[in-house]
Amino acid sequence: QQQVKQSPQSLIVQKGGISIINCAYENTAFDYFPWYQQFPGKGPALLIAIRPDVSEKKEGRFTISFNKSAKQFSLHIMDSQPGDSATYFCAASSGNTGKLIFGQGTTLQVKP
Amino acid sequence: DAGVTQSPTHLIKTRGQQVTLRCSPISGHKSVSWYQQVLGQGPQFIFQYYEKEERGRGNFPDRFSARQFPNYSSELNVNALLLGDSALYLCASSLIWGKETQYFGPGTRLLVL
């Protein structure tokens, strides 16, 4: 019940295209859902985050869509660029624990 | 502003040895969490400290321990190293404990031979 399942494992997108990464969870106590971007040899960097009281949040080219009833959330990267090539992790945490549960990661390659 | 800093950046140890990893949180942040990231996987939660008290522990053996100092920096200790402990160890800081955003450091790459 603590798992966060992420798909796809890898994704190849043409420059200018839309990248979509999906995550699903079981624990209904989760109430904070961040997305992190990680480049090789670096720590994860917070990209965007959402809480269950909204269904969508947009920051620049990055959008989180959240479906509470389906217990799913997704990251959309619009106008994907080669510089977006990285590994993306969804995560979730509940209440006041602060413990982040991460998905398995998606390796995104944006081809020029 | 300096982000989360970790030292050392890389470390090579042999099986059975002990290792200490260090983390300095973002200035003003009082909570530190530790995660282990094995190659090709997402980070796994190890510990969280807030105001020098342990507030959470993940599913790791007792060989793993940590502490937080009065200046909010933290150390992660791993005893009796195993080959499987080879990983990137990440420290994350947040303003307070709980729902606050966590900001990660660059990590310490540990290789156990």
Write structural notes for this entry.
The complex is a heterodimer of chains A (112) and B (113). Chain A is an all-beta fold and 112 residues long. Chain A has strands at residues 4-7, 10-14, 19-25, 30-38, 45-50, 56-59, 62-67, 72-77, 86-94, 101-102, 106-111. Chain A has no helices and eleven strands. In chain A, strands 2, 4, 5, 9, 10 and 11 form a six-stranded mixed β-sheet that branches. A five-stranded antiparallel β-sheet of chain A has the order 1-3-8-7-6, with no helix packed on it. In chain A, a hairpin with a 2-residue loop joins strand 6 (56-59) and strand 7. Chain A is globular and about 40 Å long. Chain A starts with a strand and ends with a strand. The model of chain A has no long low-confidence stretch (mean pLDDT 94). Chain B is mainly beta and 113 residues long. Chain B contains no helices and eleven strands. The radius of gyration of chain B is 13 Å and the shape is globular. The N and C termini of chain B lie far apart (37 Å). The mean pLDDT of chain B is 94. The A-B interface holds A 6, 31-32, 34, 36, 41-46, 49, 89, 91, 93, 95-105 and B 4, 31, 33, 35, 40-45, 48, 50, 55-56, 58, 88, 90, 92, 94, 97-107, 109.
